[in-house]
């Protein structure tokens, strides 16, 4: 068995597997280490969450050869409707107005995760499932990684280690990277409904006194619900009868899609912001949720994570072409520098949206309503907001120089 790699990727989630695929033809010798089994990943209840993918994310997935295999499982977002319950302010963003095919796409996380895992397997990339990182030490020439594979211990070395092991990242902890945590005291309740009226490919984001509610268009008349509530309220809704839940949901959302029917189990995700204070340490870098776990209110988590992947892959491919060290300090510092601004912007934006739209203090409510109404009448500001929502505010790395 091989013990030295150019690159060890910890975590076969969305970020880890996308990075492995982005580098599959780079000539780098890669292994992906994943704590769960293939089956556990497929059966995880978390796979029921829907992801709103920005157009920029879909562009990257196309470059990676991922999108064609899942496009028919996705639903285009042609309009975004943002409103505030009990207040007049609202705004609409439309693909037609912006002259684009779609503002983004909605897909069940499980469909994308399963497809990525299949592609990584087909690419022949080495993977260790049911293998957990338990220790690591970054030296001058290599990083040493201790793994636990069921009852067995295993040691590997690599030029570079990428921690893509999610919000509770062990890699982040082992590297002693401090983190900022903001507890929002909120839980996202996730489910799927079927509506009486067609959604016409509209994603609804509705801000209510109890927290934001999103309905994202899915196949037919289905819509994925992401409903943020305070912990106790969410717990009560998780335990309530179907009729009670639907009555509360209709009261928050209204009847713009007619009567709603529940068509999937409910899942609960406690929400907090976790941000690593640094992205790099020695010969290791953390990406995706390991570096930034966001509130899902603005649907930015993976959309931000895939830009980490695209940037890092682009730099590693170029480094490989120069026959240079993939774990070189300059490369990693440069990566962190290039990603910092995007992280600051999206984390700041998401945090402000949570704060402003969870606040019913009258002056704040009045300001956000004026903001939404103004936005609806300012085409330039709307274009800017739309380009941000689409993940196209900044050009993406090309990833085509392999
Ligand atoms: C309710 C909800 C709705 C969301 N909606 C959106 C949306 O609309 N749009 C969007 O862009 N994002 C959304 N997100 C965010 C998105 O789901 C995450 O950003 C994304 O899944 C993070 O991917 P990741 O690969 O970084 O981490 P993860 O998906 O957490 O993957 C980490 C992997 O690492 C493995 N692992 C953990 N520890 C170890 C270890 N010690 N050793 C080895 N392996 C390990 C785990 O088993 C896991 O497979 C949403 C999130 C939630 C909760």
UniProtKB/TrEMBL annotation:
InterPro entries: FAD-bd (IPR002938), FAD/NAD-bd_sf (IPR036188), Ubi_Hdrlase_CS (IPR018168), UbiH (IPR011295), UbiH/COQ6 (IPR010971), UbiH/COQ6_monooxygenase (IPR051205). Gene3D superfamilies: FAD/NAD(P)-binding domain. It comes from Methylomonas rapida. Pfam families: FAD_binding_3. SUPFAM superfamilies: FAD/NAD(P)-binding domain. Belongs to the UbiH/COQ6 family. Pathway: Cofactor biosynthesis; ubiquinone biosynthesis. The keyword Plastid does not apply. Its cofactor is FAD. Keywords: FAD, Flavoprotein, Monooxygenase, Oxidoreductase. This is 2-octaprenyl-6-methoxyphenyl hydroxylase. Residues 6-346 form the FAD-binding domain.
